[in-house]
Design goal:
Shape: globular
Radius of gyration: 14 Å
Strand content: under 5%
Oligomer: single chain
Order of helices and strands: HHHHH
Helix content: 55-70%
């Protein structure tokens, strides 16, 4: 599964969806046992490199600790990557001709 080559608008949609999934633990607290490692793995798939690994660690800790689930980690990472970062982000356009 490669999410790192998706467009920035799709990454934003995925980020909002993944942050919303994190709120499930308010209704069903044991969901954090599954969601904390899954969110870290998804973060590394959305954002490659050192930034992605750091964000995955933060995401794991944030989802594993109680009462920190309100922080939208995926959306904040999207904002950091595409809005606030001074690093030039290149998008790859993938054309499927099948």
């Amino acid at each position: 599964m490669t999410l790192e080559n998706t467009s920035k608008t799709k990454k934003l949609a995925f980020s909002i969806l993944f942050d919303a999934l994190g709120y499930v633990s308010f209704i069903f607290p044991p969901f954090d046992f599954v969601w904390a490692p899954a969110s870290a793995w998804l973060m590394t798939k959305l954002y490659k490199g050192r930034k992605g690994k750091i964000a995955a660690t933060i995401s794991f800790v944030e989802e594993a600790l109680p009462f920190f689930d309100v922080i939208p980690t995926f959306t904040l990472m999207w904002l950091y990557t595409f809005v606030f970062s001074s690093e030039k982000v290149t998008e790859e356009t993938i054309i499927d001709v099948s």
